[in-house]
Design goal:
single chain, binds zinc ion
């Protein structure tokens, strides 16, 4: 794929985030690793998704140097930290959806209360400790809480999901918001019953067998 096509993917993905309620305006950000290169493409800072053009999308090396496009998203350090820690990750999506933000605000992670929690996310979705947006400290906290899974909540902030490609990372972000909604509803109904540990272990094995992303 040409660089231009990767930049178009970011524009397309950003519009999908708005359509699916994952982001509004220019909030949140998304990136793609360019296979075989030490480069990523990432949404630029403060450009609304509806008005974003491919040539505005930032092209950055893994050290964070801007090579082409506008100033990258302020959350660039968090994206780079995930790509450095997880060689198999091809795309990262950071969003501010309503239900996930509510759980992130009260510091509640998502335990395995539905079968799909482990199958989709690799296990309990944890809450990364708070640090200011865009900081290296936040990037470290996110990588630690993400571990080998593909979704994490950011305390008082939002979500981060990763995948082998952008479609999968976006699907996981959408699934995470649905799961957060179910979890909040189950808490309101008196609290969920949790899955037996044996089931969680088997589903974790299935997640790993499917590539762990
Ligand atoms: Zn954010």
């Amino acid at each position: 794929m040409e660089l231009e096509e990767f930049r178009r993917e970011i524009v397309r993905g950003g519009r999908r985030m708005v359509e699916r309620g994952l982001a509004h305006g220019s909030a949140g950000n998304l990136s793609l690793r360019i296979p075989g290169e030490e480069l990523i493409v990432i949404s630029p800072s403060h450009v609304p998704y509806e008005r974003m053009e491919p040539e505005q999308v930032s092209v950055v090396d893994l050290k964070g140097n801007l090579l082409e496009g506008l100033t990258p998203s302020t959350e660039l350090p968090m994206h780079l930290a995930v790509y450095r820690a997880r060689k198999e990750v091809g795309a990262v999506v950071h969003a501010h959806p309503v239900c996930a933000c509510a759980l992130a605000a009260v510091g509640l992670g998502i335990p395995p209360f539905l079968e799909e929690v482990v199958v989709l996310f690799g296990g309990e979705v944890e809450v990364a400790e708070y640090a200011p947006p865009g900081s290296a400290e936040l990037a470290g906290n996110v990588v630690r809480a993400l571990g080998r899974k593909n979704a994490v909540l950011l305390s008082n902030h939002g979500t981060l999901c990763c995948g082998p490609d952008l479609d999968r990372a976006l699907e996981t972000s959408e699934a995470l918001e649905r799961t957060c909604r179910s979890y909040i509803l189950s808490l309101l109904l008196g609290g969920p019953r949790y899955l037996p540990e044996e089931v969680v272990r088997l589903q974790r094995e299935l997640f790993e067998a499917l590539g762990g992303l």
